[in-house]
Amino acid sequence: MDTAVHIISQLSRMSRLPADALGPEVPLHRVHIDSLALEELRLVLEDALRVDLDEVHLTSRDTVGHLVAVVCAVVCEKTTAAA
Amino acid sequence: MTRSAGQGAVAVTGLGMVTAAGNDTKAAWHEITSATTPSGVHRPEVLRDLPCDFMYTVRSLDAEGALGRTAQHMDRFAQLAVIAAREAVADAGLDPRTWHGARVAVLVGTAHGGLNFYDEQQAVLTERGARRVLPKVAPLSVNNAAASNICRDLNARGPSLAVSTACASGTNAIGTAMDLLRAGRCDIAVAGGAEALRSRLMFASTCRMRAMSTRTEDPAAACRPFDADRDGFVVGEGAGLLVLERAEHARARGAAVRAWLAGYGASNDAFSSVAPDEEGEGIELALRAALADADVGHGDIGHINAHGTSTLINDLVESAALHRVFGDSPLVTSTKAMTGHALGASGGIEAALTVLTLQHQLIPPTVNLRRQDPRVPVEVVAGAARPARLDCAATSSLGFGGHNAVLVLARA
Known about the structure:
By secondary structure, chain A is mostly helical. Chain A has helices at about 5-15, 35-50, 65-80. In chain A, helix 1 (about 5-15) crosses helix 2 and helix 1 (about 5-15) packs across helix 3.
């Protein structure tokens, strides 16, 4: 599954909102991802994508688009390093 | 207000219950007054291979459907509490969208809180390390999570407390709510108890304590309060919550009063961390305090919904104390054979059942009681529900740590 699709899928599951409600400009706190839920999402994505997101700076004020971008960057970096 | 409900009485205007005998008040009352054997005893997968592998469970409850996304921020005891609180508030005819939330208190008793998620994450820590542990262990496991989630769900912004006195928690929560109402610190209180213990560790340990029934060959008959062949309690999960109001508040809005909460007594045995004082002085103290608080005599009490856990010692100590205080006349029952011992929730559930007993003038039977222990000196209702003319009734709870709590209720 495409990384971005995977992230949106997990976000949709946690927020109980359809994927089309999770546009790139929407702040995470607007889709019920508070600071606690964000840390849970971080662990869920780490398990699902087999990456380490510990150093990725995220807050609930960040947007869905920012979340997707920074996580995709880590996945890309890992893929490149492995190649 | 009846003669028996004095100036200090507060109105019970709403009930909410989620129990192994039924997922709402109406279903639970029907089952508890009509069934001859409990249907709620099951063997959850999580208890597999333990010496005691059965308990009373709430079935067919779609907590996630009822609570939506907030369900994932609650352990099961808090989910049951919120569902029961919604029912109680609706039953009282109150609307949280319009009420004065700052004058609404929430007090919920629990013995163990959210141990299920705690255990699950303990396993993650052991097997996968600290980095894989979810960050919500504290907010899900704390004992105040039931109260705080009710507050958030119902916009209740007055005083809120978790009350934790082991198996007396629910009764102490209701009594403390009564004190807050009398002190004028709130107009409405949502109070009772909630528990949903499925912790393997706690089951294993309590079994070693020899407090739980190990009648694994016949789990549905294991909880048999006051029976000569009883061998321990059986855990149940559930929640029981009451809406209490200052009498003037209930009167001013024309609320239907189900019963009056007339008196509260609490004490401690100051004796042991687990066993009750065999002389029963602590529970007797609480019983007499509740009578005095209600300003009624022992002869006014026609019925007692007892703690009646089905342990050897509790049923002897409690029934002897009841006999010393009330004599031969009150009709005693234990509803735990239908609900299981819901620990910190039991006081809330049993207070709600006592309200219904007064309302319907019908005493639920002590199911599974076949042969009353000859050392139990009170008349226990068994076999079938018994109609009775009741003005006042009491309900008692005893908890590990020597906590005793008693409520006196009066017919509306």
